[in-house]
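Worked problem 6 (solution included).
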Amino acid sequence: MIAGGSDRAEEYKTLLNKYNGVKSKHGFYDFKSISVENTGARKAGVSGTDMRNHAASGNYNQFKAGLPSKLKSNPTHAKQIYNDVKKFIVTGK
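Solution. The predicted structure is:
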């Protein structure tokens, strides 16, 4: 599952389905299923860069504030996403 704002969700769905199962210079992806969740319209002043910066600086409260309401209202998932983003920034994995 991938989540994307209303401005990108359809594009993600199209690209993921187009290249699933296709070998290319970027690798080979063979997903058993693909789903794209539309997270709604972008919030003013919130961007992926802002969210990564909040995670990198250890600012969980600001990170959580920028999450969609469904994620924000679930503390377990909100913290898991924060930790995953922070880990990726540090390790690249």
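Discussion: DSSP finds five helices and four strands in the chain.
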